[in-house]
Amino acid sequence: MSKNKLLFSTPQGGVSLRPGTSKILTNDRHHDHHHDNHHNQDGHDDHHHHDHHHDNTGIDISKYETIRVYARNRSRSATSVSISLLVSQDDRFIAKLDKVMLAPGQTYTQTYSVPGQTLDIRATATPQRSNRSYRVDVVDVQVYGHK
Predict the structure, then answer these.
(1) Could you give the CA distance from residue 63 to residue 116 in angstroms, rounded to a whole number?
(2) Which long-range contacts (CB under 8 A, 24 or more apart) does 99-104 make?
């Protein structure tokens, strides 16, 4: 039996979004954020990141036959969140694999045949009707590859 490999996971505390905003979750790779903080201030080591910029975004799914996506909108979130799965080939966007709307407290899991090289995940938090509350939406997403 071949096993699933974890290809991507949001940080342990989840990712927070203000209602009405959108975030590409896969840009914000967990293991990168240590050096991200300081290379912006001292601008000079910035330039060598640009040519590799796209290697860094997206999850490499090319070696897998299927992927399993698990997503959760935490129950304390203020609004629903839509999760879009975007597939690219040779750094060009080719298709929206799926789009799922998750109400607070909802989870979702689905297996897909892999149609491209790279998967990006975009989370979009629904705007709030009243602006009185300062609560945010918190989502967790994991992607597993299966050969």
Answers:
(1) 10
(2) 100/71, 102/71, 102/72, 102/73, 102/139, 103/73, 104/73, 104/74, 104/75, 104/76, 104/77, 104/78, 104/79, 104/80, 104/137
Q: Between residues 123 and 55, which one has the greater pLDDT?
A: 123
CA terminus-to-terminus distance, the chain: 10
CATH of the domain at 47: 2.60.120.380
91: left (phi over 0), alpha (psi -120 to 50) or beta: left
- pLDDT over 60 at 56, yes or no: no
Rounded Cα gap, residues 119 and 55, in angstroms: 12
Question: Please, are residues 119 and 51 in contact by the beta-carbon 8 Å criterion?
Answer: no
- Measuring CA to CA, which residue among 59, 55, 73, 75 is closest to residue 124? 73
Domain limits for position 22: 5-146
Q: What is the mean pLDDT of residues 101-112?
A: 98
